[in-house]
């Protein structure tokens, strides 16, 4: 049975997953990139840029874990691109260029139909409008025995959490205060009481927590 | 100039400083005590119970720091006791018995008048209704050159934060999900963008962050 996993989802100390005023130039809102500074400093991230520097250690291990035994990805539309409303044409092909790093099927949630988009490197984007459990079923079938990663953003994560579909939740708290923006936990989520939390551990200034569904233990 | 300091203020991973359904038997709400488990495990806390066990290390150091160079305390009424509305009589004398651990003047915020309450050990409770800056001025005068600690709870902390009065904020993230309850950051607090945050550090499963006003550096 495929697990649905959330990795490296980073919150500010005051609970925001993105800053205010998200736009094309600032997809994560004002100061939102600061949340991910810990990722940019890892060796695994820097190697994707063809560089040899960066930290190894727990941050690097956990950042890299997002790709292990994963056969499909689900993401909200804002993770795919900045366009809102109907697609004006098919020219937007994602933030990642012609060879996206996924190498598997990616299910993009949208209310607006669009044909499958086959890219290099084994990545195909599917544009789907369906309930979370239906999207997960499609992604799990595509993953062919491996797990499914949920890519974000915050509202997509909330929907899949509320639907009880996420098995493993890796949250990161960054030493940043955003003061406003988009929260992950904007409403009490009673389903969270069904999760147990590991002790927090820190590396290079950020704290990691991993939540697992109690019924899945 | 006295500083106003907040110490050991603990949040769940999902941002709650107390659980739901606070009452006399559960002043911190359902599961709220879990937030403070890290405190109960410190050597400094256990010594207040006359015991010799407990952890030393960063948690213990930071827990103990709340008493260093402190000459007065401010707290919300719920921190003083469970009574709401007018005082029925003067029989409630705080959660701490006849010899409270403060050893200095404690200013309790309340809309209901009550005479000063002089206890053993040099503690006097003053019951005050005034704007945050006025209460801080009174407490700073009483502290006589030392600092003032803000004791909580969440709504009191929010008021003093919003008023721009807190110089040092020590927050702790505990490996607990409460799913609902009372938040510290229930509304965007623009004043937070005036604070800088230290890198997070962990000890025994909790993460510590210290915020300092940039204009105070």
Question: Care to describe what's here?
Answer:
- Two copies of one chain form a homodimer.
- The first copy, chain A, is globular.
- Chain A is of the alpha/beta class and 217 residues long.
- In chain A, the strands form two sheets. In chain A, strands 1, 3, 4, 5, 6, 7, 8, 10, 11 and 12 form a ten-stranded mixed beta sheet that branches. The first copy, chain A, has a two-stranded antiparallel ribbon with strand order 2-9.
- Chain A is 19% helix and 26% strand.
- Chain A has one domain (4-86, 93-216): 3-Layer(aba) Sandwich (Dihydrofolate Reductase, subunit A).
- Chain A binds chain B through residues 13-15, 20, 171, 173-181, 183, 185, 188-193, 195, 197-202, 204-207, 209, 211, and chain B through 13-15, 20, 171, 173-181, 183, 185, 188-193, 195, 197-202, 204-207, 209, 211.
Question: Layout of helices and strands, plus pairs?
Answer:
The structure is a homodimer of 217-residue chains.
Chain A: E1 4-11, E2 16-18, H1 37-40, H2 43-48, H3 58-64, E3 70-76, H4 77-80, E4 105-109, E5 117-118, E6 124-128, H5 132-143, E7 147-150, H6 154-162, E8 168-173, E9 182-183, E10 195-197, E11 201-203, E12 206-213
Give Rg of chain A in angstroms: 17 Å
> How large a portion of the residues of chain A is in β-strands, by DSSP E?
25-35%
Task: Please give the alpha-carbon distance between the first and last residues of chain A.
Answer: 14 Å
The secondary-structure class of chain A comes to: alpha/beta
Q: CATH H-level name of chain A... which superfamily?
A: Dihydrofolate Reductase, subunit A
Helix content of chain A: 10-25%
Chain oligomer state: homodimer
CATH architecture of chain A: 3-Layer(aba) Sandwich
Main beta sheet of chain A: 10 strands, mixed
């Amino acid at each position: 049975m495929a697990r649905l996993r959330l990795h490296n989802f980073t919150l500010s100390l005051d609970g925001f997953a993105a800053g205010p005023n998200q736009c094309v130039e600032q997809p994560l809102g004002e100061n939102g990139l600061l949340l991910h500074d810990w990722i940019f400093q890892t060796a695994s991230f820097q190697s994707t840029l063809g560089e040899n520097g960066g930290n190894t250690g727990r941050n690097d291990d956990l950042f890299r874990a997002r790709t292990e035994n994963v056969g499909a990805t689900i993401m909200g539309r804002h993770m795919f691109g900045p366009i809102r409303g109907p697609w004006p044409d098919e020219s937007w092909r994602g933030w990642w260029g012609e060879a996206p790093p996924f190498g598997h099927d990616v299910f993009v949630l949208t209310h607006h139909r669009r044909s499958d988009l086959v890219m290099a490197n084994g990545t195909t984007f599917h544009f789907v409008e369906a309930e979370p459990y239906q999207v997960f079923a499609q992604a799990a079938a595509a993953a062919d025995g491996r797990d499914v990663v949920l890519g974000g953003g915050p509202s997509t994560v909330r929907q899949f959490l509320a639907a009880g579909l996420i098995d493993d939740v890796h949250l990161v708290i960054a030493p940043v205060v955003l003061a406003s923006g988009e929260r992950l936990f904007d409403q009490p989520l009673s389903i969270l009481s069904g999760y147990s939390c590991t002790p927090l551990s820190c590396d290079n200034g950020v704290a990691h927590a991993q939540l697992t569904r109690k019924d899945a233990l």
